[in-house]
Amino acid sequence: MTGADFSTLNLTDVTVKLEEDGILIVTLNRSRKLNMFSERMSSELLRVFQLGDQDDRVRVIILTADPAAPAFCAGADMDEIVNGSALLGRKEDKEHEHRDPGGQVAMAIYNNRKITISAINGHASGTGITALQIPFDIRFIWAGAKLAFPFIRLGIVPESTSTYLLSRLIGESNASYVLLTGDGVKPDSPIISTLYHKTFPNRTDVLPAAIALAKNLASGTGQVSMAYTKGLLHRPGASVEENHLLESRAMKLIGTSKDTVEGAQSFMQRRPPKFRDTLSEHASSWFPWWSPLDVKHPKSKL
Amino acid sequence: MTGADFSTLNLTDVTVKLEEDGILIVTLNRSRKLNMFSERMSSELLRVFQLGDQDDRVRVIILTADPAAPAFCAGADMDEIVNGSALLGRKEDKEHEHRDPGGQVAMAIYNNRKITISAINGHASGTGITALQIPFDIRFIWAGAKLAFPFIRLGIVPESTSTYLLSRLIGESNASYVLLTGDGVKPDSPIISTLYHKTFPNRTDVLPAAIALAKNLASGTGQVSMAYTKGLLHRPGASVEENHLLESRAMKLIGTSKDTVEGAQSFMQRRPPKFRDTLSEHASSWFPWWSPLDVKHPKSKL
Amino acid sequence: MTGADFSTLNLTDVTVKLEEDGILIVTLNRSRKLNMFSERMSSELLRVFQLGDQDDRVRVIILTADPAAPAFCAGADMDEIVNGSALLGRKEDKEHEHRDPGGQVAMAIYNNRKITISAINGHASGTGITALQIPFDIRFIWAGAKLAFPFIRLGIVPESTSTYLLSRLIGESNASYVLLTGDGVKPDSPIISTLYHKTFPNRTDVLPAAIALAKNLASGTGQVSMAYTKGLLHRPGASVEENHLLESRAMKLIGTSKDTVEGAQSFMQRRPPKFRDTLSEHASSWFPWWSPLDVKHPKSKL
After folding, report:
1. pLDDT digit string, tens, across residues B195-207
2. Using CA atoms, how far apart are residues C55 and C16, in angstroms rounded to an integer?
3. Tens place of pLDDT for every residue, chain B, 302 residues?
4. Preferred mutation among B244, B261, B269 to probe A, highest tally of A CBs within 10 A
5. Which of A144, B68, C185, C256 is most buried, taking the most CB atoms under 10 A from its CB?
6. Residue B198 pairs with which residues in a beta bridge?
């Protein structure tokens, strides 16, 4: 599917640019407000990541900020929270009706079929980590970034599905420490360092490195292969046996595609591959193999 | 609920002291027997952690030992085991009737709604790690501690729910190595180092550092916020979607509390918060949201 | 059960030798083809690991290669794949009928009741990591080994149950990076280093170190204790409560064995233990406590 014209989207808290090589760069655009996570920012990010997922032209999505901004993202907008925004739940919502906006964004990123990179070129706090870093596939960061998890210090709870994801990503020992103490950390702290794949001494180096990797992946990997591999990593089945059945079926499905033939041929001929299959053309009634829980319905029994 | 008078509990293998600032300090008191884990110690720890969970005055629970003792805990009491204690299962119990005393203690710690800190100021072995370190939220340790996992060398199996928890805390690669080889390790070994959040060169430095963090958490975090955050970390749901619903509901429930208002106000006013909500006052029929498996019944089908 | 005569098995792509002390050494034997994973190699490894599991004489299984070979294993045999082998699924198989040969081998290793060690003394790629390293209990490696995860670069998906196991072993943050970028890494890279328990500067040092550990484990650990401990680590139950019931029952079952008596006595007498219980003699209708999913049936609904 060739999707929306990203350049004509009516956005204010983020800007979006689709590069010719299939790289969608999303930039936080509230630097005067420390790029704080607003209700509007959440709905704009949700829309952009959903469009990026559906648009066959998009192969990699990068989130970043202006490296000259005072912060990558200083957390949820406290002014909005005090004024009763949906960030902590609107007054009129019943107990079971609230849907955390950070979690909505986090799921749109984690469930994205395109590879996602967070290029963190400034300080970050709260939702600026839980929604804007943790759900991504790859995280590049400025070595000087101050990172804070203040939830427990504010009398609230961590959100944006971080209480599910962080333990999986870096282990429950470290996840418990940062979420239960609220301590500030730096990217090279052993408590958090496995969250970050590359660290850069200068703020201005983070995005170029992310773009270089993105270009490499956009030209060197297949769209269907990436989507299936992400699916297998995120929904691996409940045992090695279930996983074996899922991997086997994914391999058989993809094994008849043009991309697999091209992958083998380019390998034998020692040349770069040209993958052309798209998710739209290669639709399968089997993928996704899991039944996503419908979280939209406010009458969910959870 | 204002609970028991900890000072009048009839305890011998541990001592307990509730500090004014809500810190409950539990000290192993069998140094003449290397603080070995006895049946009596297990029932005393079980009682103390359950009371600490229920008592609204308690905000942090620290476990430690006399730093002059020959060991933090040298494992299960082998004399008792040879004499047929419940530690490995009494002779008269049928196959499905045994309940591992270390596991009972471990669950009382892991499921505790108050934050728990293990201040390990001596050598530790077996149950001294599986029950008295692994189920805690935070672990501070003496750098010189010798750590041993001897189960596989004794012809038995690891216990105290360590076969569930250790892989989650530090990854299955490292957990498999220490539990399947029984090798001794030091706290700075890459095999085990992510289990420990801070390491101290002197045995006498461990408890003071734990108390300093405890004071900071007791005054700077909310009781309900801590309980919900621990619940989310330990029972995050089976997918990002389920987790999103749980986090959303926890946030909505807590978002109307006095603590959340105080958290936002103190943040805006740049002053330390004064959290006053208690778990007793803030009871909710929704929390805990999971149905704990009843492990007491000896006729369990497991 | 005293099993097959390993020396008379009709094998070509691997060689097998059962040492007197219960150590089964399996050596990849395709060095002229870079030890590439062939369909034949997969069926030979499957058979050898299944026999090793069932044979009471076997206590430890080591997989290795000739340290002079150009690679430990250079991945799946691309010639076979291009010629339509079962490695990616045969043409005539329907979508749900393929069973990944690497996954079959991986499950035979991961589910093995004997402790397994991979002694990686050369470069490795693809299936040479996913099937021949990841499912093992312990991994020793040559520091100079080049490691590559090329699946995403070939338009296919990772296999051999690596999308289930790798996140569990080293955390999803690192697993996602290596599987989604396909980047090459060295054993000391923080991205992958927790996968390896010991690293050696010389290729020829890897196997002797693995054999030394194997001898130590073969003489110092019980066969039933090892099998139950591996079972608990791999199938720990869905919560601490379920795990507590499983550990309790395993401890009670094993607690009446001769090995447990010997373990306690040798400990008290400060002498090495002599464990003699075997899995055949110590069969229990309870172990394994999980119902393995039958993956052989091609009509599986997954």
Report:
1. 999 999 999 999 9
2. 14
3. 566 788 889 999 999 999 999 999 999 999 999 999 999 999 999 999 999 999 999 999 999 999 999 999 999 999 999 888 888 889 888 989 999 999 999 999 999 999 999 999 999 999 999 999 999 999 999 999 999 999 999 999 999 999 999 999 999 999 999 999 998 999 999 999 999 999 999 999 999 999 999 999 999 999 999 999 999 999 999 999 999 999 999 999 998 899 999 999 999 999 999 999 999 998 888 999 998 888 986 654 44
4. B244
5. C185
6. B140
Taking CB atoms and an 8 Å limit, are B176 and C252 in contact across chains?
no
Q: How many residues can be counted in chain A?
A: 302
State whether A154 and B237 contact (CB < 8 Å).
Answer: no
CA B2, distance to chain mean position in Å, is 21
Q: Are the C-beta atoms of C137 and C116 separated by less than 8 Å?
A: yes
CA distance B97 to C256: 14
Interface ipTM: 0.96
Tell me the residues of chain C between 69 and 108 that have a Cβ less than 8 Å away from chain B. Answer: none
**Which residue in B82, B155, B160 is closest to C273 by CB distance?**
B155
B223-234 and A172-181 helices cross at what angle (nearest 10)?
Answer: 160
| B256/C27 Cα distance (integer angstroms) | 64
> Angle at CA A261, nearest 5°, toward A255 and A264?
100
The tens digit of pLDDT for each residue in A235-266 reads 999 999 999 999 999 999 998 899 999 999 99
Q: How far is CA C144 from CA C32, C137, C182, in A?
A: 21, 21, 19
Decide if B230 and A159 are in contact by the 8 Å CB cutoff: no
- Whether B233 and A167 lie within 8 Å, measured CB to CB: yes
Check if B175 contacts C (Cβ < 8 Å).
Answer: yes
B167 interfaces chain A, CB cutoff of 8 Å: no
Which of C169, C173, C295 to mutate: most A Cβ within 10 Å? C173
> Pick from B245, A213, B7: which is nearest to C177 by CA?
A213
Q: Which chain C residues are closer than 8 Å to A251 by Cβ?
A: 88-89, 98, 100, 156-157, 159
Pairing between β-strand B14-18 and β-strand B23-28 as defined by DSSP bridges? antiparallel
Q: Which chain A residues are Cβ-neighbours of C135 within 8 angstroms?
A: 240
Residue B109 three-state SS: helix
Give yes or no for a cis peptide into B288 (omega within 30° of 0): yes
Cβ-defined contact of B295 to C222 (cutoff 8 Å): no
Chain A residues in contact with C181 by the CB 8 A cut-off are 138, 213, 217
| Residue C207 burial (CB count, 10 A) | 23
The model's pLDDT over B144-165, given as tens digits with 9 standing for 90+, comes to: 999 999 999 999 999 999 999 9
pLDDT tens per residue across span C41-67: 999 999 999 999 999 999 999 999 999
For chain A, list the domains and their CATH numbers: 6-218 (3.90.226.10), 223-302 (1.10.12.10)
Out of C93, C154, C172, closest to residue A263 by CB:
C154
Whole-model pTM? Answer: 0.97
Which residue does chain B place closest to C221, by CA atoms?
B153
